[in-house]
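Proteins fold reproducibly. Next comes a concrete instance:

***
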Amino acid sequence: MVKSGVEVSGLRVVRGGQEVLRDLTFSVVPGEVTGLLGPSGCGKTTLMRAIVGVQRITAGAVTVFGEPAGAAALRPRIGYVTQAPSVYDDLTVAENLSFFASVLGVGQDRVDACVRVVDLAAERGKVASRLSGGQRSRVSLAVALLGEPALIVLDEPTVGLDPVLRRDLWETFHALADEGAAVFVSSHVMDEATRCDRLLLMREGRIIADDTPAGLLEKTGADDIETAFLDLVEQAAS
């Protein structure tokens, strides 16, 4: 049996009097790319914040590698990429990575390795403010990978990127999973579903499906994930 990297049980989050997450229970295992798909505003970012330990929860539990989410011992084991690039605009790619490497206590060899992973060797001397949106996203990913995290949480990392770059990033996510990391990535783009090993489909703060892409298509009889999602929404409403 594969040991879970993340265990979420009965998770509820209420914010501003509104229930944002509604009794979520699922796991994320090492060695897989688990996709969290759903429309904007359904609670994906709140869920990811709960997993990395920066979201106050109302009920339930979230554990990561056996520790409560947010525990100090987990900090070097988690890489978190938010929707907004986490880089300093007035520093170069190399300077950004060197700064965060010094905070984490890792060496230049790790900086060089992360630059190669995200394919930014040719841009390492460029100031971040002059990079494209896709390149800035890749710098953020490189920063998240500096500590060789066992769990990588990626909040809509491919939004606004061209198809070639999206493909390249998904190949990187799978390479990281193949090395043993648990990769948890969110998207509202349904055609990215087939790139995941496993899917969580989310709607209005609830998980309405948890299966492989092939399993979801088989269960619903749909030809594509978007149709399967719509079928599941209709079933949940009936």
In short: The chain has a mean pLDDT of 90. The longest strand covers residues 18-28.
